[in-house]
């Protein structure tokens, strides 16, 4: 009986570790320049690719903002609800190969995302090569 209970606890502990290691979920974005919490972004998987959608803007004064500088079909859309990360592919323990858009500037960047521990996410947007860019650390919400 004890061995069955031990096996069950080991299995449940392993499942919790797997979930904690996933990039899928809700993340609180932190402005890398000011340290201010900005939004909640949900990273989700669809058809083998990963995307990030703004679920909530944390500053009530900006909650109804629109992406006026965004290119293409996103121009003028509400930022809350906007998919800002697109077409990322899992590459080992990181996501890469996709794009991220900055709704404030409307600029699109190549993107790399990787876990930093179990509850932090390093999101790097860059032009050209990864050395020329910025990294934000997001916290699991």
Automatic annotation (TrEMBL):
<dbReference type="Pfam" id="PF09917">
    <property type="entry name" value="DUF2147"/>
</dbReference>
<dbReference type="InterPro" id="IPR019223">
    <property type="entry name" value="DUF2147"/>
</dbReference>
<protein>
    <submittedName>
        <fullName>Uncharacterized conserved protein, DUF2147 family</fullName>
    </submittedName>
</protein>
<feature type="signal peptide">
    <location>
        <begin position="1"/>
        <end position="20"/>
    </location>
</feature>
<feature type="domain" description="DUF2147">
    <location>
        <begin position="25"/>
        <end position="140"/>
    </location>
</feature>
<keyword id="KW-0732">Signal</keyword>
